[in-house]
C-alpha cells in the first residue's frame, strides 16, 4: 500500500493529491491520515513541490466537502435525514449522525466549521450543519479552507520530516495502512449487512 500510493502520487502529481483528498471527503476509502503524509514523502524526495501539494490537498478537501454542504442546503434537515436513512448502507452518515452534527453546530456556533475540519471523525460531517443552517458559501469556504490547510499542513509536514528514514518508515506504515484499510472495509461490510431502513 505504501509503495502503491507513493508511486501513484509520483505519476499523477498534484491532480492525484487533489483527487484522493476529494474522494476521501465524500467517501473515505483511504483516509487523509495516509494520503497527505505519503505526499510529504514524495515532496521530500523532490518529486513534488510542498506548496503545490498543500494547495492540491486543501482544494481537494474543500471539493469533497462541498457536495455535503450543497446537499444539506438544498434538501433541508428532514429530507436529508430521510435520504441518509434510505441510503445509509452506501453512505458514511446516518440520520443520527446528522442530528449530532446540527446539535454541535448550534452549541458552538459557526466557528465549529474551522475546528471541525481538524477532527477526523467529523471533518466531512461538519459540512452538513453548515448547509442546513444556510451558512453563506463565502463563510463556509473561508473557515473550511483555513481548517483544511492546517490539517493537510500537519500531515504533509509529518511525512516530509520522516523522509530521511523512508525505508524504515515504509516497513512500519505499510502494514499499518493495510490494517486500517482492512478495518474500514470490515466496518463498511458490517454496515451493509446489518443496516435496517428507518421506519416511516
UniProtKB/TrEMBL annotation:
It is found in: Cell membrane. It is a multi-pass membrane protein. Residues 30-159 form the VTT domain. The keyword Acyltransferase does not apply. InterPro entries: DedA_domain, VTT_dom. The keyword Iron does not apply. It comes from the Bacteria. The chain crosses the membrane at residues 12-30, 50-71, 140-160, 172-190. It holds the Pfam family VTT_dom. Keywords: Cell membrane, Membrane, Transmembrane, Transmembrane helix. This is DedA family protein.
Amino acid at each position: 500500500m505504501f509503495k502503491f500510493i507513493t508511486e501513484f502520487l509520483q505519476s499523477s502529481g498534484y491532480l492525484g493529491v487533489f483527487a484522493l483528498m476529494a474522494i476521501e471527503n465524500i467517501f473515505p476509502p483511504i483516509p487523509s491520515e495516509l494520503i497527505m503524509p505519503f505526499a510529504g514523502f514524495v515532496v521530500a524526495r523532490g518529486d513534488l513541490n510542498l506548496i503545490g501539494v498543500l494547495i492540491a490537498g486543501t482544494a481537494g478537501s474543500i471539493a469533497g466537502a462541498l457536495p455535503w454542504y450543497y446537499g444539506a442546503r438544498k434538501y433541508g434537515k428532514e429530507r436529508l435525514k430521510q435520504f441518509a436513512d434510505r441510503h445509509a448502507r452506501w453512505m458514511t452518515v446516518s440520520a443520527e449522525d446528522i442530528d449530532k452534527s446540527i446539535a454541535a453546530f448550534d452549541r458552538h456556533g459557526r466557528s465549529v466549521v474551522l475546528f471541525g475540519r481538524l477532527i477526523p471523525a467529523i471533518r466531512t460531517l461538519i459540512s452538513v450543519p453548515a448547509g442546513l443552517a444556510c451558512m453563506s458559501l463565502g463563510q463556509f469556504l473561508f473557515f473550511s479552507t483555513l481548517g483544511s490547510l492546517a490539517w493537510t499542513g500537519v500531515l504533509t509536514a509529518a511525512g516530509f520530516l520522516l523522509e530521511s528514514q523512508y525505508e524504515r518508515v515504509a516497513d512500519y506504515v505499510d502494514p499499518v495502512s493495510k490494517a486500517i484499510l482492512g478495518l474500514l472495509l470490515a466496518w463498511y461490510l458490517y454496515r451493509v449487512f446489518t443496516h435496517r431502513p428507518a421506519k416511516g
